């Protein structure tokens, strides 16, 4: 997400769905030699959703943005280990 800044991003969680939305707006204004003026605008939108596992600790989700890279940390509760037990055949 190199064109997006963290001010233009919004991350929400609702009903075990993580949503990342962002936008980038760019305007360019220039004046010609004939004193004509023109403006070029471009808009980019980003919107994606991720289904979270049931054991997600929603209150502990963290995000950070560094050098155009968005990293989201999604902690999960530890699932109880299922110890495998071998059954002897008689």
From TrEMBL:
Coiled coil: none annotated. Residues 1-90 form the SHSP domain. One of its GO terms (biological process) is response to heat. The keyword Nuclease does not apply. The keyword RNA-binding does not apply. Gene3D superfamilies: 2.60.40.790. InterPro entries: A-crystallin/Hsp20_dom (IPR002068), HSP20-like_chaperone (IPR008978), HSP21-like (IPR044587). It holds the Pfam family HSP20. Keywords: Stress response. Signal peptide: none annotated. Belongs to the small heat shock protein (HSP20) family. This is HSP20-like chaperone protein.
